[in-house]
Fold this protein.
Amino acid sequence: MIDCHDCGGSVSFSAASCPHCGSREPSGPYIQSPRELRFHRIEERNDQTLIGMLVLCTGIGFFYGAVTGGAWPAAGYGLLGALIGAPAGFIINVSRRLFE
Ligand SMILES: [Zn+2]
């Protein structure tokens, strides 16, 4: 038996919800280990890198296309930038994981 995280009543450890207050997490919120937290932070930063690279490369491609051609080349180069940016961000993420 454990004390309910929300109301303090005793609850079976395996209970899915508290019989007293109906709390869905009687054992309290799941606490991540430092290792998990660290890994989660890397994952979060990886997402930011991927989106950042995608936006950056799309922007550069779009700008290049607009300067040299016009609306349609801009769209084409923007797409090309996105196609380069996504794997570029992915490579940065993989290399970061290797060195951290
Ligand atoms: Zn409770």
